[in-house]
């Protein structure tokens, strides 16, 4: 959770600016269909881990009662494996998009980040903090991942729970044992479960609505408006105008939506989870 007085420069984050948040009632994500052949993890296993990660955040009980007022929409598999956002262009709407979760088996394309386990890239409006797009990359080229509860090494569900925290707008936490702390224990499942600081953070951004008592996870959620999807529609291909239909699962109403016409500036923010070969990870 962010310090209410703002970050100090020594913490490596901005000292001013707007908190990040999704302005939509529902957010969406899709998994890259190849999974990780290098680590023998399928797209279906990645999808299951993402569902568990989102359930940890959106199913948490807020301090004052209720659950975070944000919905999540799993859109299935996509062929695209690129970090991108297609904003509106002058005189025309933007091409469709997808918030993608993907492995990097062939190479980790960030030579200055050789110890990074996972990376979340966020496109947001610098004036309001409204998030438009988020993509999660998993460094399977340099790191193995485990998906069970034995022989644990870089537990996939725990890594994704941390990255989903960035996905929904949270920065790193200084709170001991927080899922959002920068250090990650390579063989610990604890990051699958939120600390009180993590819960306070998500509930601060997405305060529970009065009707959120029986909504908050992927199971049993209320319905979103028809054809809910990413900004400008949903596409399974990179940089394509071809749109795919999208269904929806949702929670209660989120923060007020800002019209895209009022949000003209774009910036790519990056959240990192780093690994150290000896001991925890930091980043």
Describe what you observe in this structure.
With 283 residues, the chain is α/β, with parallel strands linked by helices. It has a single domain (18-283), classed as Collagenase (Catalytic Domain). 13% of the residues lie in helices and 16% in strands. It has helices at residues 43-58, 156-167, 196-205, and strands spanning 26-32, 71-78, 100-103, 116-124, 131-138, 267-274. The radius of gyration is 18 Å and the shape is globular. The model is unreliable at 1-12, 212-223, 246-267 and 276-283 (pLDDT under 50).
- Would you identify the CATH H-level superfamily? Collagenase (Catalytic Domain)
CATH architecture: 3-Layer(aba) Sandwich
CATH level 1 class label: Alpha Beta
Helical segment tally? 3
End-to-end separation: 16 Å
| Proportion in helices | 10-25%
């Amino acid at each position: 959770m962010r310090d209410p007085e703002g970050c100090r420069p020594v913490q490596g984050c901005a000292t001013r600016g707007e908190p990040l948040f999704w302005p939509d009632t529902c957010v969406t994500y899709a998994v890259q269909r190849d999974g990780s052949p290098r680590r023998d993890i399928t797209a279906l296993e990645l999808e299951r881990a993402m569902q568990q990660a989102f359930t940890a955040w959106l199913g948490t009980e807020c301090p004052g009662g209720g659950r975070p007022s944000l919905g999540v929409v799993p859109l299935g598999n996509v062929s695209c494996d690129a970090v991108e956002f297609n904003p509106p262009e002058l005189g025309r709407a933007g091409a469709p998009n997808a918030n993608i979760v993907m492995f990097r088996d062939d190479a980790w394309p960030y030579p200055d980040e050789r110890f990074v386990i996972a990376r979340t890239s966020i496109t947001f409006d610098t004036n309001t903090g409204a998030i438009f797009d988020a993509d999660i990359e998993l460094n399977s080229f340099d790191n193995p991942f485990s998906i069970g509860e034995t022989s644990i090494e870089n537990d996939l569900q725990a890594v994704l729970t941390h990255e989903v925290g960035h996905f929904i707008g949270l920065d790193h936490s200084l709170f001991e044992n927080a899922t959002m702390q920068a250090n990650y224990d390579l063989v610990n499942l604890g990051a699958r479960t939120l600390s009180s600081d993590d819960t306070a953070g998500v509930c601060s951004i997405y305060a529970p609505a009065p009707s959120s008592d029986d909504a908050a996870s992927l199971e049993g959620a209320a319905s979103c408006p028809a054809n809910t999807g990413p900004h400008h529609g949903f596409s399974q291909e990179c940089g394509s105008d071809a749109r795919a239909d999208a269904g929806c699962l949702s929670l209660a109403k989120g923060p007020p939506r800002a019209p895209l016409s009022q949000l003209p500036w774009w910036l790519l923010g990056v959240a990192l989870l780093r690994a150290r070969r000896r001991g925890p990870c930091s980043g």
